[in-house]
Q: What sequence folds into this?
């Protein structure tokens, strides 16, 4: 038995921007629309069936860093999402970063963290701190890059990068301009137009590399939100930006 999602099977155009708030109708949307938290939870659970069927046995590489790694509540939520995904048959692989912890130590030692196009410039002094924080690991490789290459090498279905923004924003300062879904050509255009800048550049590039090597989709999602992984993987709309070939 292979259940097909009843809702809009239509493909989204290559670049779709939707305000994420639409997924959570507020009571002011009308009494017939208002859903109790229990109803909402049950619907999400029921909606997850086709995704469990689709992704069972598939490898999902998740890079985690930023707030999700710092806040104990978010840490616990990421780990519980991973356990749940594994219990229903997916094969999650976790790659962790260490940027904030490295910066904290550099600050204590009065060393200015230096970045070029979103990637850390690791001089000899910084390397000592990096080694200390990450325990012995001889090259400092950006964890997004590691996650992307690992996803490709493992033949993963998905690559998911948790970060501290909602996803790719068409307009960096407008949280309502989330790009829900796009493809390689779409993200290359966003980089060329300088709409994607700073730390988002290596993130997007490693998604592109992973997809070009066979990973089906790469998502950049908000690690500040509890259970963001489940929301992205197990719902039709997802939560952040999903990049396809
Ligand atoms: P992490 O620490 O999670 O690896 P980074 O801080 O290196 O992430 O990169 C994410 C940052 O990229 C965002 O916080 C944001 O400041 C910046 N950025 C640049 N362009 C965009 C964009 N178009 N959409 C979203 N974020 C962007
Ligand atoms: N859950 C589905 C998947 O993982 C759809 C996710 C859509 N996500 C998005 N950000 N548009 O394939």
A:
């Amino acid at each position: 038995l292979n259940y097909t999602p009843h809702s809009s099977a239509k493909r989204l155009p290559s670049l779709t921007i939707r305000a994420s708030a639409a997924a959570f109708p507020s009571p002011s949307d009308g009494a017939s629309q208002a859903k109790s938290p229990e109803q909402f939870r049950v619907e999400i659970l029921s909606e997850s069936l086709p995704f469990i069927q689709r992704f069972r046995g598939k490898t999902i590489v998740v890079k985690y860093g930023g707030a999700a790694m710092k806040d104990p509540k978010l840490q616990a939520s990421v780990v519980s999402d991973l356990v749940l995904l594994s219990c229903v048959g997916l094969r999650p692989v976790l790659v962790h970063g260490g940027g904030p912890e490295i910066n904290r130590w550099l600050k204590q030692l009065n060393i200015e963290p230096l970045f070029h196009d979103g990637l850390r410039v690791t001089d000899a002094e910084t390397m000592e701190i990096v080694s200390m924080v990450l325990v012995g690991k001889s090259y400092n490789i950006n964890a997004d890059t590691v996650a992307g290459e690992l996803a490709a090498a493992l033949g993963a279905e998905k690559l998911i990068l948790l970060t501290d923004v909602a996803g790719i924003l068409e307009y960096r300062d407008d949280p309502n301009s989330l790009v829900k879904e796009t493809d390689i050509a779409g993200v290359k255009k966003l980089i060329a137009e300088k709409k994607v800048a700073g730390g988002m550049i290596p993130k997007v590039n490693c998604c592109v590399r992973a997809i070009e090597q066979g990973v089906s989709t790469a998502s950049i999602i908000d690690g500040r939100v509890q259970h963001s992984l489940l929301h992205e993987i197990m719902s039709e709309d997802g939560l952040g930006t999903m990049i396809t070939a």
Q: What stands out?
A: Residues 1-14, 16-31 have pLDDT under 50 and may be disordered. Residues 51, 180-181, 217, 219, 232-233, 235-236, 238, 240-242 surround arginine (ligand 2) (CB under 6 Å). Residues 79 and 223 are 12 Å apart (CA to CA).
